[in-house]
Design goal:
- It comes from Streptococcus suis.
- One of its GO terms (biological process) is transmembrane transport.
- Keywords: Cell membrane, Membrane, Transmembrane, Transmembrane helix, Transport.
- It is a single chain.
- The protein folds into three domains: about 190 residues, no CATH class; about 260 residues, no CATH class; about 210 residues, no CATH class.
- The chain has 22 helices and ten strands.
- A hairpin with a 2-residue loop joins β6 and β7.
- The longest helix is centred in the last third of the chain and has 54 residues.
- The two termini are about 40 Å apart.
- About 40% of the residues are buried.
- The mean pLDDT is about 80.
């Protein structure tokens, strides 16, 4: 009997290939992606790459997310396949195949299917391992090395996890078939879903949940608030989306049904009635497509913006190849500071082509209004929540002219000002603590960008750039800095190689013990652009790489759900359209009915996913700003581009699956 069951299992897999092909492709690709994540997370060479600290942990997290997604997709696909084959199992049972033999047959099907797809996926993962390691290094802006390290434990992890999933799938199948009688198996695919009660109450709850999630996203005022708010808003929107499709869409269909002028037309009658009949299944499928589409869009928008916007972030923090920022007393000799800086660069073996110097002040504010600015001491600023602080840079008019090439003629009681978070007008009086000053000019942009290191202003809701006649005006309220920026003839790779000398803790500690620092020097900050670039892109590149693979997984899940949904609707609609044709519905009316139903069913999820992204954009952009994406115009363009590309991909999937649907129906 085992031989007969095995032959039946092989025959069934071949006969139902239309159902199993997308399921198999999904399993193969998922296995390959899981292996690639495992291989990279435990790659022995990756830990030796400079600037790759923490990347393996991020890859390990990505591997967990992918494996969870794979488990969900396998259970979903198996559930669909088993439901579509329920009549087939019922016929086997009626024809005399005992339950134990039916269970053995389905178990053997699962063994053959899982073994063939998992092994194929592993072979694909092994073949692509070297390529994806090189791609990871490329996105991290590291030298590309085509190496592949085979580790048996990676194969064991993937095999154990995936076979564990399929063992659970087999147990679920055995349980369902064992507890279902033959008649119910025959009728299983044709049985409609039960009507849901309290539709309007559920619809109202869905709108409340969605509204609450949207409001939370819009109330975010700073990047620090955005991160904890994001997860709560996401949960509300997911629950609201499922309820909206579960009850809201059905309420809409019932409303259309009550509109006699709309409903009693052949194509509308068929489409609306058909959707209402399968209300629950359609609702869950549509909601799943919406959530997966939103996840794809958010993941791609976040990953690509971080990667592309990284150059602006690095340029803002590191305007020069090498920089030395000294916090000093007002009486400290600037000439001595410059001579000292030239000396330490020479000792570090760094050839200098050009140099810029800017004296400036950094200040903290407890209050910034359109009439009053109150300064904070460093000690008080340290005890206040970062999001409640106002931060400012103060320049003299000589530094402003050097930065912009424009002259300012300011009196001692005048100030030129650029502001974020509060508006000022030229000619007004502005009080700084007890000092009244006239706003001589309102600046149109932050003139310090590209000239002074900016580590914090993109993370706060209020900041000021003040230009005054002389820095002595605020020397008691603000921290005095002297910035020196150097351009070097060394290549970026040569700078990276030399990073240990310039940034080593030993080198910096020697500065304080060697007595070469000028008197009145409080702190010294050493930085250079090549090191910051390598560090940032090791993080951003790995994040972008993981985002690509996760997006591929989400996209694959969307395609799988759409394809299975089209097939299930095709099989269920075929018999109904045959009946309608017999009672007088012509082919054109049939085609119009199909088109209207498909348009309504499959374009609502993509529309709602883009709406979700639109409401989440403010919160998402705040999170991206906290990571370092500071070019808001570029962020918007990237987001729109991703939405357009995804919509085109969605159209392509829709066109392919619609053709399959029409083939089944006709």
């Amino acid at each position: 009997m085992f031989g007969l069951c095995f032959r039946l299992a092989l025959t069934n897999l071949k006969k139902n290939r239309r159902l199993y092909y997308p399921y198999a492709i999904m399993t193969i690709v998922s296995t390959a992606i899981s292996y690639i994540f495992a291989s990279l997370a435990f790659h022995p060479d990756l830990g030796q790459v400079k600037g790759a600290n923490g990347v393996t942990q991020v890859l390990g997290f990505g591997m967990i997310v992918v494996m969870l997604a794979v488990a969900i997709m396998v259970f979903y696909a198996n559930s669909f396949v088993m439901k579509q084959r329920s009549k087939e199992f019922g016929v086997y049972s009626i024809l005399g195949l005992e339950k134990k033999h039916l269970l053995l047959m389905t178990f053997l099907e699962n063994v053959v299917y899982s073994t063939s797809t998992i092994l194929t996926g592993l072979l694909l993962g092994l073949a692509l391992d070297k390529l994806f390691y090189a791609l990871l290094l490329k996105t991290m802006q590291m030298p590309v090395v085509l190496t592949s390290v085979f580790q048996l434990k990676n194969v064991a992890i993937v095999l154990a996890y995936l076979y564990g999933i399929f063992i659970l799938v087999s147990l679920v199948n055995i349980g369902k078939l064992g507890l279902t009688d033959s008649l119910k198996l025959v009728q299983g695919k044709k049985r409609g879903d039960k009507k849901t009660g309290f539709l309007w109450l559920q619809t109202l709850l869905a709108l409340i949940l969605l509204g609450a999630g949207y409001v939370i996203a819009q109330l975010v005022t700073s990047p620090i608030q955005a991160i904890p708010s994001f997860f709560g808003a996401t949960l509300l929107v997911i629950l609201g989306t499922y309820l909206l499709f579960q009850a809201g869409v059905i309420s809409l269909l019932n409303w259309l049904k009550r509109r006699q002028t709309y409903y009693y037309k052949p194509d509308n009658f068929i489409s609306v009635s058909n959707l209402i009949f399968r209300m629950r299944k359609n609702a869950l499928g549509l909601a799943t497509i919406t959530i997966l589409s939103t996840m794809f869009l958010v993941t791609m928008v976040g990953g690509l913006n971080i990667y592309i916007g990284g150059k602006d972030y690095i340029a803002n923090q590191n305007p020069n190849d090498y920089s030395i920022d000294v916090v000093m007393e007002p009486t400290t000799s600037k000439t001595q500071v410059e001579e000292w800086a030239d000396t330490i660069l020479e000792e570090a073996g760094i050839p200098v082509e050009s140099k810029v110097v800017y004296p400036y002040q950094q200040a903290y504010f407890s209050e910034v209004t359109h009439q009053q600015v109150r300064f904070l001491t460093d000690e008080k600023a340290a005890s206040i929540d970062f999001s409640d602080l106002g931060i400012g840079f103060i320049l003299d008019q000589a530094s402003y002219e050097k930065m912009t090439g424009q002259k300012l003629e300011l009196a001692a009681d005048q100030v030129a000002i650029y502001s974020k978070g509060v508006q000022f007008q030229a000619g007004q009086t502005l009080t700084f603590d007890e000092k009244e000053m006239e706003v001589a000019q309102v600046l149109s942009k932050n003139v310090t960008l590209g000239h002074l290191p900016d580590y914090v202003t993109f993370n706060v809701s209020q900041y000021l750039i003040l230009v005054v006649q002389d820095l002595m005006i605020f020397e008691n309220q603000a921290e005095n800095h002297y910035y020196m920026g150097f351009e070097s003839s060394l290549s970026e790779e040569e700078q990276v190689i030399g990073q240990e000398v310039f940034l080593s803790g030993t080198f910096e500690s020697e500065l304080w013990t060697s007595n070469i620092l000028p008197d009145g020097t409080n702190t010294v900050s050493l930085a250079y652009r090549a090191y910051a670039t390598r560090n940032f892109f090791s993080f951003a590149g790995s994040l972008f790489f993981i985002g690509l693979l996760l997006s591929l997984t989400f996209l694959m899940a969307v395609v799988l759900v759409i394809y299975f949904k089209q097939i299930s609707e095709g099989y269920e609609d075929r018999d109904r359209f045959i009946i309608m044709t017999k009672v007088g519905l012509d082919e054109d009316q049939t085609r119009q009915s199909i088109r209207k139903q498909l348009l309504m069913v499959f374009f609502l999820p993509i529309f709602l996913a883009i709406v979700h992204l639109g409401f989440a954009y403010k919160m998402l952009s705040a999170i991206l700003v906290s990571i370092g994406v500071v070019n808001m115009e570029l962020m918007l363009h990237v987001t729109i581009g991703i939405c357009v590309v995804y919509f085109l991909l969605y159209l392509m999937v829709f066109a392919i699956t619609t053709r399959t649907y029409k083939q089944i129906v006709s």
